[in-house]
Design a protein that fits this description.
This protein is α+β, with helices and mostly antiparallel strands. Helices cover 31% and strands 33% of the residues. The protein starts with a helix and ends with a helix.
């Protein structure tokens, strides 16, 4: 049953964010690890833990795309980034812990216009929603 859940989650992750590819290098998660690198749009990984929760760790993602995705998924100012959301956030660190679900959200807004972020211990559906929103926001920024 666990293998089926892993495969299903991995399929949902890659459907939502097609740049993800199976990685030989595993991480601290027990399930499958997917990685991606796209010049000018960032890099990172998504993995599934043994508690059926997902983790995203992305680096150097354009702030405008993260802002669009965050606003779509969670609205603005959940992380004290201000009323304009992450698209307008000042450089700095933003952190939120959900005491009900034990999920953790960490965002580092860099002065170069990129964001490094980690979303940990989140339900697979929520990871898929964030990946989908981010993919659409990044697609809007790609050259035609």
């Amino acid at each position: 049953m666990w293998k089926l859940q892993q495969d299903t989650a991995q399929g949902a992750f890659t459907a939502a964010f097609p740049a993800l590819d199976t990685a030989d290098l595993k991480c601290r998660c027990f399930g499958p690890t997917l990685r991606w690198t796209t010049p000018g749009q960032g890099k990172g990984k998504v993995c599934l833990e043994d508690h059926e929760r997902g983790t995203i760790e992305f680096e150097n993602v354009p702030k405008a795309a993260v802002g669009t995705a965050m606003t779509e998924c969670w609205g603005v100012d959940w992380f004290d980034e201000g009323p304009g959301g992450f698209a307008d956030a000042e450089p700095g660190q933003y952190h939120y812990e959900d005491e009900q679900t034990y999920s953790e959200y960490e965002f580092d807004v860099n002065s170069d216009g990129t964001v490094m972020f980690g979303i940990s211990y989140v339900k697979v559906d929520d990871i898929v929603a964030m990946l989908d929103a981010l993919e659409r926001a990044l697609a809007d920024q790609r050259p035609a």
